[in-house]
Amino acid sequence: MHSWFANIGVGRKLAIGFGLVLALTLTLALVGWNSLGSLIQRSDWMGDISRLNTALTDLRITRLQYMLADGDDAVADKAQAAYESFARLHQHTLSRFASPANVQRLQAQGVEISAYQQSLNAMRNGYHASRTAQAQLASRGTAAEQALAAVRVDEQSLDDAQRYADLLAFSQMNEHWLKVRHAVLAYTGKPEADRERQALAQLADLQRGVEAFRAEFSGASTAAFVAAVQGYQQALQDFSKAVATIAQARQEMTEQGYEIVRLSEELMDIQYTRRDAESAA
User: Shortest CA distance to 121 belongs to which of 248, 206, 221?
Assistant: First the structure.
């Protein structure tokens, strides 16, 4: 082969040399172009993940605004719109990935996103139930006050021998009722565990005195008062259940949000690792 190369002309030698240089240059250019294309594609995927994270942040902010607005329906609609926008973007992002490692994490995010919708629905139902219970508390509270006032009117017709004992019993029940109303208003105004316990304790004290009160005052007004108190107690229980539902939904959405973020971080780490490997190739 050395003899063959030595026997060819200078022109051919130069042509072969330039040809080899050209082939090498074209090879390097193709490799570089493919690497650049891979880097651009990788950057696009990283941008998709970043936009997904931004949409999740918007959703979480809107959900917090919804809670700060105490379940306002208009803000609830904004939270739902933010969720739907995030879910659509996630589906679009999933369609752009083919690698099993990426698809697996995006699908896991999809599970959390579906659960987020269920928790958001539960929170909305909780706020609706809360408002209904508060309306019932107001209605039954007014009915109890009116019935108790009617008992007071009935008591005025009693003879002097019974009046003192009846006045004492009425005053004690009225005091119990005022304490219940005050404790419940404090609890519904700011639903906290301590305030709930105080409201329930005051209501329990009231219930313990109801039987003695009914024995002292056996008229129709007393029966109406007792029925109103029972309805008031049920409304308070409904309100407590609604508050618990809202708290549970909030906890679920917090955990779901953390899991979606964790999966996004894993997705981004995969892109970083592959980008570095492609750059070094």
Answer: 248
Residue 256 in contact with residue 140, Cβ under 8 Å? no
Cα 24–29–34 angle (5° rounding)? Answer: 130
Could you tell me if 232 and 144 are in contact, meaning their C-beta atoms sit under 8 angstroms apart? yes
> Which amino acid does the sequence have at 251?
Q
- pLDDT band for position 148 (cuts 50, 70, 90): confident
pLDDT of residue 28: 58
In whole angstroms, what separates CA 84 from the centre of its chain?
14
235, 81 in Cβ contact below 8 A? no
Rounded to an integer, what is the distance from CA 226 to the centroid of its chain? 39
DSSP letter assigned to residue 218: -
Q: Which pTM was predicted?
A: 0.80
Q: Are 184 and 240 in contact (CB under 8 A)?
A: no
